[in-house]
Amino acid sequence: MRRVFGSVRARATLAAALVVAVALVAAGVAVLLSLRSNLLGQAGTQAERTARSVATDLAMGKRYDELSLDGDEEPVQVVDSTGTLVAASEDLTKISGTDTDAVKPQPSASPSAGGEESDDDADDHHSALEPGEIDDRTTFTNGSATIDGQSADYRFAAVRVEVDGKGELTVHAGAPLSAEQGAVRTAQTVMLIGFPLLLGVVAGVTWLVTRRALHPVEGIRSEMAAITASADLARRVPVPDTHDEVARLARTTNETLAALESSVERQRRFVADASHELRSPIASLRTQLEVGAAHRELLDLEGAVEDTARLQRLAADLLLLARLDAGERPGGARFDLGALAREETARRRSATLDAEAVEVAGSQGQLGRLLANLLDNAERHARSAVTVSVRRDGDAAVLAVADDGDGVPEGDRERVFERFVRLDDARSRDDGGAGLGLAIARDVAVRHGGTLTVRDAPAGGALFELRLPLAPATR
Predict the structure, then answer these.
(1) pLDDT bucket at 122, cuts 50 / 70 / 90
(2) 20 to 30 A Cα–Cα from 188, which one of 72, 88, 371, 431?
(3) Phi, psi (deg, nearest 5) at residue 419
(4) Residue 48 CB-density burial (10 A; 0-12 exposed, 13-18 middle, 19+ buried)
């Protein structure tokens, strides 16, 4: 049961059924109330018409025995001001809901029109009607009556009339509510039968539509489960031929898988290349130490120190790359990029500097490492000169390092920033490095919200340009 109602399809079906059920109940109640009100109004109109017809006859002077009160389904009572029943339908045997439950007329005890009334009676009848006048107001009540042995519910209308010589009389006339009750029962029966059927149709249609809509999602889920089980990141989830959220989810999932595959492949290549790069200096250092242990006079101390330094630099590069990959934040320290360039180029005999004061924010150590890597690369490829410049360009700080070497071919200008890539593979590893310097420089630039690109220098050779956002203005 938990599994069934734990599915999106089941929850959607249940929610749709509940919403429709609430709407149907509300609509049904409104329809029944409206139907009952309309039918009650019709019955009241019919009862009022009968009551006023009798009141008119009384106002015209007809005697009680001359009134037409023999309707089969319309009970009528005429009551005087003292509450005495003075006229009633002939076959009326029982009644409720009017001023009196009497069904047999009695002699009237009301004063004549010419009689005198006490002061109290005058106060009680301050709104008394004129002789022959019928009150415009009608009072409605619900009750029941038995006529000719048939009992039913009625809508009663009460109308007052002033009759000369008889005083004030009240005519009660009823109209049957059987039509209203029958219509309401019929409507209730239709609703009790139709509403469950309609709910079943809504639930079934929702179940089928949701199943069809979620079928691609199940395909995505099953394919992701297969990818997880096989660890084959080259596989992709099926993309439905639609333009809805499910299709966008599938495309985004495939983009994520592609990025994950690229990241894993990059990590594998990084580990393999790092192992390869570490193997050479370690093997060389071990050989030198083994030879020195056997023949101390043949120990190459300078070579051992050089291999150790190379290992140290490579380990430092790998550690920095690992920290960058882990998303290490560069910090928000403010410093002068021009001053950093002056400090770094002062250690290089072949580098010339043209720098202005430009303030940036970030890690001074990482940006110093970036500049050192660019200068190392430029010195390896320059014929005679390396130039460094720092300037402000709009809302960016620009650091450029140029050499007068052979430059970087246009097709390789992005590849040079990949890890362990060396375009000068013909040279020895000792001269060319491990191929991590430019990769580290690009990663540091990106972490600082900047860019690092390469193009042809004006005087020939390569020009590496770093663009960083300026430090935000202090308040």
Answers:
(1) very low
(2) 72
(3) -75, 140
(4) buried
What distance in Å separates the CA atoms of residue 147 and residue 70, rounded to the nearest whole number? 10
Question: Which domains can be identified in the chain, with CATH numbers?
Answer: 1-232 (no CATH), 245-325 (1.10.287.130), 333-469 (3.30.565.10)
Question: Are the C-beta atoms of residues 245 and 214 closer than 8 Å to each other?
Answer: no
Q: Rounded to whole angstroms, how far apart are CA atoms 96 and 99?
A: 8
Indicate whether this model's pTM tops 0.70. Answer: no
Q: Considering the chain, what percentage of its residues have pLDDT values greater than 90?
A: 32
Torsion sign over Cα 131, 133, 139, 141: positive
Strand-pairing partners, residue 389, are 354, 400
Is the separation of the CB atoms in 175 and 47 below 8 Å? Answer: yes
Distance, in Å, from the CA atom of 207 to the CA atom of 455, rounded to the nearest integer, reads 60
Tell me the per-residue pLDDT of 335-371, one tens digit each, with 9 for 90 and over. Answer: 999 999 999 998 888 889 999 999 999 999 999 999 9
Supply φ then ψ for residue 349, to 5 degrees. Answer: -75, -30
Amino acid letter, residue 89:
S
Tell me the C-alpha distance between 121 and 433, whole Å.
125
Give the integer Cα–Cα distance in Å for 308 and 313.
9
Q: Which helix (H) or strand (E) holds 46?
A: helix 8-59
Phi, psi of 395 (to 5 degrees): -100, 25
Helix (H) or strand (E) holding 123: helix 119-124
Burial of 411 (0-12, 13-18, 19+ CB in 10 A): exposed
Using the 8-state DSSP alphabet, how is residue 474 labeled?
P
Number of H helices, E strands in the chain: 10, 13
